[in-house]
Amino acid sequence: MRAVDIIEQKRDNKELSTEEISFLLSNYLKGNVPDYQMAAFLMAVYFNGMTDAELLEFTKEMRDSGDIINFEGLNKFLVDKHSTGGVGDKVTIALEPILSALGMGSTKLSGKGLGHTGGTIDKFEAIEGFKFSNTRDELIKIANNTGIGLMGYSDKIVPLDKKLYSLRDVTGTVSSIPLIASSIMSKKLAIYSDAIILDVKVGNGAFMKTLPDAKKLAETMLTIGKGLGRKIVAVISNMDQPLGCAVGNANEVIEAIETLKGNGPEDFTELVYNIAALALKLNGEVSTIDEGIRKVEEVIKNGSALEKFALFIKESGGNPEIINDYSILPVFKAELDVKSENEGYVSEIQAEEIGKAAMIIGAGRATKEDVIDHSVGVLVLKKVGDFVKKGETIAKICYNKETEVEKSKKMILGAYKFSNEKVEKPKIIFEILD
Fold first, then answer.
1. Which end of the chain is more exposed for a tag (fewer CB within 10 A), N or C?
2. Active site residue 183
3. Which position among 161, 240, 267, 373 bears the catalytic label?
4. Of the listed 63, 168, 215, 356, which one is catalytic?
5. Is 374 marked active-site?
6. Which of 187, 215, 383, 396 is flagged as catalytic?
7. What is the pLDDT of the chain when averaged over all its residues?
8. Of 83, 100, 106, 183, catalytic
9. Is 187 marked active-site?
10. 117-121, 169-173, 336-340, 376-380, range with the lowest pLDDT
11. Please, how many CA atoms are within 13 Å of residue 33, restricted to the half-sphere of its CB?
């Protein structure tokens, strides 16, 4: 068996056997197949896609290229929620304590952000002393104590995906849906869970810009999950404007805590509650989403979800008093009101521009080497559907250095579009696929 023969078959759109896929990927991981041959294979996949059988084998090979983490002794229904990323997406921070308070557990890998999207690790690292689990034993210990199992990415988990992604990044094949789906799902399947809930973002601030593309990605990941024996559902959610109001790490932690107190923004609260209700439905505890939402409202009202959050922070080395005192978090030095130059109903907020406006003042990374300033960010005070008077504050820039503040302000003003006609508030959830 030769790599070139496998490449030619995929080039000619012929289905590969499990043995051929296994041969190619295992030898690439060992260094026996060079980058230039794997690059040719990835481009062939980009143009010809994969059959379901190829996709399952490809994902399985990636999953099995490193450690597999199970949770012996954790007698809970385990849920892994994955988001494809967006601006102001702090769902994990609020969702995991809710799942724990509902008697379930969460098990997932979390990453750092690059570009205009912030990673879950970056948000939690705004909490002084907080450390993500880096080993299987640490993860299991904290998950047993809190019901929350979050772990940073490790070179020992799905190392093949890391190697392939670096190559995809420089060969123009990042946007291939089969390659995106197998990359995401290999990491989901490497850490055991009873159910996977995919939050597939669509819109200006998301990786998938159109609803058909988002649905195609979701359906591809559902195929992998079901094919490899997992309960799995996908939520297609709106990222045409920032999620919630806070964009920037410490501010997003505060907004998540406020949501656990019942004071969260309407769109963010709706998304978190629906995902938690879906988890209850997958566990067989409720038969409808509405019934699940009522249970979520109970753990918010009685404070048990907030208590679980504080316990997780304490077990992870942080100060649990942040739930009562936000000054413990990094605090920005100054803020600038961004005032509207127009009057009318907000018809559009380009989420990606808001994300970039936060990134250039230090809330995100332009390169992997950039150091994040956890205290800075943007607060979006007016959302789509709101009426705005000329001169009214539509956003605030929270900053430490004045260098890029004016540029950030121009980007925010440019991100807002207005209409003289009344604009309906947009849906946060477009569709649920199972």
1. N
2. yes
3. 161
4. 168
5. no
6. 187
7. 94
8. 183
9. yes
10. 117-121
11. 27
Angle between helices 159-169 and 18-30 in degrees, nearest 10? 80
Residue 117: its pLDDT value, please?
58
CA 139 vs CA 44, 80, 148, 432, 434: distances in Å: 38, 14, 9, 30, 29
pLDDT of residue 152 exceeding 80, the answer is no
Residues, the chain, total? 434
Active site residue 168: yes
d(CA 176, CA 306): 40
The radius of gyration computed from the CA coordinates of the chain, to the nearest angstrom, equals 22
Confidence of residue 324 (pLDDT cuts 50, 70, 90): very high
pLDDT over 60 at 114, yes or no: no
Per the structure block, which two tokens stand in for 386? 């709101």
Tell me the C-alpha distance between 164 and 61, whole Å.
12
Residue 116 pLDDT greater than 60, yes or no? no
Give the pair of three-digit tokens for residue 200: 């597939």
Q: How far apart are CA 219 and CA 221, in angstroms?
A: 5
Residue 116 and residue 111: Cα distance in Å, rounded?
14
For the record, the structure tokens of 252 come out as 């997003």
